[in-house]
Each structure stands twice: as C-alpha cells, then as structure tokens.
C-alpha cells in the first residue's frame, strides 16, 4: 500500500458525508471530530485528484465525481464485509453475515417469501435485508451500482450499465378492471409510473382504445386497489394481480401482448460471493418452476 491508496477509514467518511449531507453530521455518526472528517475528505480528494463535495452553508453535496467515488466506496466497503464473513465461514465452517436485496413491490410480495424460506434453510445465520424500490429512472439497478444493494430484482433491460444479470422470467401485461363490468375498455385509465421497455411503450402508443389517464399513481398496489373500487382500469404486469381482491378481474390485451422481462442484477464482484450465487440460484430455480407451470 502506498500513501496514495485510500484507506477504509477515508472510504467510510466519504459514504457518511454523502449520506448525512454534511461534515458535522458525518462526524457525529462516525464518532469523529469534524476536523478529522474534513481532513479525510481532503486527503481523498488529493489522492483521487478531483473535488468530491461542494461545501456550503447548507452542508455538503457530492459533485459528479463525488457521487461516482461514493458508489465505489460503498461497494468496496461491502466487499470487505463479505471477505470477513466468507473467511470466517471457511475457517469455522459456518456462514454468517447479511445480503441486501432491492426489489419492486410485486417481486418482493410474490417471489421472495418462498425463495428466502428455502435460502434460510441452507444459511440459517445469514440475514437478508429486503428493500422495496420503485422501478423509475435508475431504479433498482442504480441502487446496486451505487452500493446500496448487493442484489436487485429488476425490470430488464436495465437503464444502468456496469452490472451483470440475467432474465428470470417474462410476463405479459394485462388489463385489470372492476369485476363484473360489461365494458372495461370504456372506463377511465389509471396510470402508474414504472420503467418499461421501448417495445412496450411503442405497443401502448399504437393502441387507439387506450384513453388518456385521469389518475396518476406511483405504486401498482394502489392502482389495483383503485381498480377494485371501480375507479377505472389499468394495464399492469400479470404478477401485479397475484392474490388480487375478487373485486379485480383480468383481461388479456391481445394475442401478442407487450411483455415485462424481470431478472436479477448484481456486480461482478458480488457474484463471486458464494452466498450471493446461491441466492441467485434459488431465485432462478423458483422462477423457472413457477413460470414454466404458469405458461
């Protein structure tokens, strides 16, 4: 190691300053003095050769270079945690630690419970932290790239580069409507925000029967609830309607409907972790069985 190598302590400071949006709050979180935090940031900036934070009366905000540096810092610190856990497992024969998973709501509700139950039987002392993330903009893949999650269940293709991943399944979009309504396509449309493929956007644009949306919603669970109360219809992926209320019915869109492709995303470094690979394996096995049966 040379004097130009960043230390783990400096990486932790960068992450804390970005998270807390200030040097003072970061110092409090880390149990350091504010001058020590300032010194660590200046040292990191000198070693990297770029200004990482804009300082001002309202705190500290990462520059573009700072955001990139913090993302790498989170991932490096996470790899250090994984190294410790897997070294302990090799020495003691017992795997401990945690995996952080980011997923959209319907995947977390309808895929992860079975997968994590099977995973827990293999790794009883590994905890899995699941966080619901909206698939908007950089979405779930952005959380993985920025080091906030180890594994993501995301809509593919991802809008973020630099990750590895693979399809788990594909599912059609369907029309959800109030059960018993004789003409569901005459109802207002409830729109919800989600990343979708270019092919899906083109399909939607070609449908003359789809009215402009009267209601805009950010969560597909809220959409399904509104449909059940008769407020309108919605075009949603089929998984969204798993275990939906009897008040919600489903209609196929046409013989060649748009599809949502769902897969996992992670970093090449995390895929080297045996525990992450085994969790991916459980995901792939469960999805292959469930969606083959559905098809």
From TrEMBL:
Q: Which Pfam families match?
A: HTH_1, LysR_substrate
**From the UniProt record, which GO molecular function terms apply?**
DNA binding; DNA-binding transcription factor activity
Q: Which domain of life is it from?
A: Bacteria
Keywords per UniProt = DNA-binding, Transcription, Transcription regulation
Q: Which organism is it from?
A: Streptosporangium carneum
Write down the PANTHER family for this protein, in alphabetical order. Answer: HTH-TYPE TRANSCRIPTIONAL REGULATOR CYNR, TRANSCRIPTIONAL DUAL REGULATOR HCAR-RELATED
Protein name from the UniProt record: Transcriptional regulator
Q: Which InterPro entries match?
A: LysR_HTH_N (IPR000847), LysR_subst-bd (IPR005119), WH-like_DNA-bd_sf (IPR036388), WH_DNA-bd_sf (IPR036390)
Q: Tell me if Lipoprotein is a UniProt keyword of this record.
A: no
> Which family does the entry's similarity section mention?
Belongs to the LysR transcriptional regulatory family.
Which SUPFAM superfamilies does the UniProt entry name for this protein? Periplasmic binding protein-like II, Winged helix' DNA-binding domain
Asked if the Swiss-Prot or TrEMBL record annotates the protein with the keyword Transmembrane, the reply is no
Q: Which GO terms describe its cellular component?
A: protein-DNA complex
Query: Residue limits of the HTH lysR-type domain?
Result: 6-63
The record ties this protein, via CDD domains, to: PBP2_LTTR_substrate
